[in-house]
């Protein structure tokens, strides 16, 4: 069975038969790491460099003016996509840089000894290591929220860990390991009641479900283009206008300045203050093209396809005796299709290699979440993460292959050590 959207992605078509006619088509199931790019995105990026390659802001000639309009137009498209204003959108390289910007320009300026930063133990390293650094520099303290066995954050855990000393709550919208969709509006309500701000990592939710920053009520949010069908090297920081205006620059150089004198400088207002140097115009245009592509499909369609695939995947995995799912082992509304798992008696890397031998791409490792894996009692896991261009046939092929993975690995070991 072929997805009607599979044809929109040239890389998937190109890789389909690359490894030989004896292999089945590529089943790319590592979308939590990065997604492929549709033709419209590739054409938008190529078109910019072919027809309009010029530095924005710096010239009065027509291609420079056009480059400026395209870049700022992309900012407006991103803002509309997430229910924000254009002057609340800062372009970054990725989610990691966006979180670091908040840490350095907001947190380091405000936190003091005795203050607390609350975050789940399940956080990606990019939303953990940076806050470790902030605590080392300011004397603040990390407080960890612990999801239950199903990967959920219970109300009593939030109430116990988010208190009067909490100044920042840093949390992923969707866990990149457990697949949990966290109750952000309840978390925001608790945080704001305690006088804290919320930094939301949307890397695993942007591109899969609609985002509305005003409805969610968060103070900061970040996501990467490459996980939502856009190019690598472009990311977004959303920041409430009043907070953004109160923050000093992160980097210094061209285009972020208002005036430069021999011994001091003044800086631009709004997002430009945080975008020093020549920006990634093509990346921003590619991100806008990806948003247009997703919008034309519609999130009702995307969520419906991905929910059906997730249900098929999780139900099938639960039926395999040798397989352990980390997090909620049932398809529920507060669970995405990101599934981390282990095969009893087999190393995750060996399982991933067996799957690769059948042209099925999944992730193995700690998925940049080592503290969570240790809490789960393992060092590594495999992770499967379908999206709307995947098909039921690919899910079934994954299930068939992973069910026999332990036997395949045992045979290979016996062939080496008879």
Task: Summarize the model shown.
With 418 residues, the protein is of the alpha/beta class. It has 15 helices and 15 strands. Helix 8 (213-216) links the parallel strand 6 (197-201) and strand 7 (220-224).
Descriptive keywords:
418 residues, 4-stranded antiparallel beta sheet, 40% helix, alpha/beta, 15 helices, globular
Largest sheet: 7 strands, mixed
The geometry reads as globular
Helix content: 40-55%
Strand content: 15-25%
Q: Determine the number of helices (DSSP H or I, runs of at least 4 residues).
A: 15
* Structural class label: alpha/beta
Mean pLDDT: 94
Secondary-structure element pattern, one letter each:
HEHHEHEHEHEHEHEEHEEHHEEHEEHEHH
SS elements, strand count: 15
Instruction: Specify Rg, calculated over alpha carbons.
Output: 23 Å
Name the quaternary structure.
single chain
Q: Ranges with pLDDT <50 over ≥5 residues?
A: none
**Cα end-to-end separation:** 40 Å
Strand line-up of the largest beta sheet: 2-8-7-6-5-3-4
Verbal overview:
The strands form 4 sheets. A 7-stranded mixed β-sheet has the order 2-8-7-6-5-3-4, with helices on both faces. The protein has 15 helices and 15 strands. It has helices spanning 10-15, 39-51, 62-81, 95-110, 129-138, 155-161, 184-193, 213-216, 241-245, 281-297, 299-318, 348-357, 370-376, 392-403, 405-416, and strands at 27-28, 89-92, 116-120, 141-145, 166-172, 197-201, 220-224, 235-239, 257-260, 265-267, 323-326, 339-343, 360-361, 363-365, 381-384. The chain is globular and about 70 Å long. With 418 residues, it is an alpha/beta fold. The mean pLDDT is 94. The longest helix is centred in the N-terminal third of the chain and has 20 residues, at 62-81.
């Amino acid at each position: 069975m072929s997805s009607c959207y599979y044809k929109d992605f040239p890389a998937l078509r190109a890789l389909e038969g690359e490894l030989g006619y004896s292999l089945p088509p590529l089943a790319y199931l590592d979308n939590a790491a990065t997604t492929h790019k549709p033709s419209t995105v590739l054409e938008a990026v190529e078109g910019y460099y072919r027809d309009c390659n010029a530095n924005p802001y710096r010239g009065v000639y027509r291609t420079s003016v056009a480059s400026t309009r395209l870049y700022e137009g992309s900012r407006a498209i991103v803002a509309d996509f997430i229910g924000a204003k254009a002057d609340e959108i800062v372009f970054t390289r990725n989610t990691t840089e966006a979180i670091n910007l908040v840490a350095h320009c907001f947190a380091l300026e405000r936190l003091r000894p005795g203050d607390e930063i609350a975050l789940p133990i399940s956080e990606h390293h990019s939303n953990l290591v940076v806050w470790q650094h902030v605590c080392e520099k300011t004397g603040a303290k990390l407080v960890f929220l612990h999801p239950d066995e199903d990967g959920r954050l219970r109300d009593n855990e939030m109430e116990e860990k988010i208190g009067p000393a909490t100044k920042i709550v840093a949390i992923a919208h969707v866990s990149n390991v457990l697949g949990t969709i966290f109750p952000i509006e309840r978390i925001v309500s608790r945080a704001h009641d305690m006088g804290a701000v919320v930094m939301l990592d949307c890397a695993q939710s942007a591109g899969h479900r609609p985002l509305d920053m005003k409805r969610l009520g968060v103070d900061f949010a970040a996501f990467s283009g490459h996980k939502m069908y856009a190019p690598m090297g472009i990311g977004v920081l959303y920041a409430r206008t009043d907070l953004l205006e109160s923050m000093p620059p992160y980097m210094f150089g061209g285009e972020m300045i208002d005036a430069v004198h021999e011994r001091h400088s003044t800086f631009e207002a709004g997002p430009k203050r945080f975008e020093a140097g020549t920006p990634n115009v093509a990346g921003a245009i590619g991100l806008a093209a990806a948003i247009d592509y997703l919008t034309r499909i519609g999130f009702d369609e995307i969520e419906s396809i991905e929910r059906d695939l997730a249900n098929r995947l999780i139900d099938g995995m639960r039926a395999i005796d040798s397989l352990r799912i980390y997090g909620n082992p049932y398809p529920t509304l507060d669970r995405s299709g990101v599934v981390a798992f282990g095969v009893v008696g087999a190393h995750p890397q060996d399982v991933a290699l067996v799957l690769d031998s059948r042209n099925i791409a999944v992730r193995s490792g700690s998925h940049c979440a080592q503290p969570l894996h240790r809490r789960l009692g393992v060092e590594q896991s495999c992770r499967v993460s379908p999206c709307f261009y995947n098909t039921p046939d690919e899910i079934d092929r994954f299930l068939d292959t992973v069910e026999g993975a332990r036997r395949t690995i045992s045979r290979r070991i016996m062939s080496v050590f008879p």
